[in-house]
Write a structure and sequence with these properties.
The protein is an alpha+beta fold and 64 residues long. The chain has a domain at 15-51. The chain has one helix spanning 13-27; strands spanning 33-40, 43-51. A two-stranded antiparallel ribbon has the order 1-2.
């Protein structure tokens, strides 16, 4: 098995702070859904937020 350790820092301190803010912004207010972080060569290149809207159903099973 190949050694997957890498001594290079993934981000600088300032980049890490910005990355943390962007992730928190993507998660904030999300009730149902997901946040996907895409990494290429050890660097975060994309943060994707998917939000689902759940419709409430009445007792007869109708959305409303």
């Amino acid at each position: 098995m190949a050694d997957v350790t890498d001594d290079r820092p993934a981000t600088t301190a300032g980049e890490g702070d910005r990355l943390a803010r962007e992730i928190l912004r993507a998660v904030r207010g999300l009730r149902y859904g997901s946040v996907e972080i895409t990494i290429h060569d050890g660097q975060v290149v994309q943060i994707e937020r998917r939000e689902k809207v759940r419709l409430e159903r009445d007792r007869r099973g109708r959305a409303g």
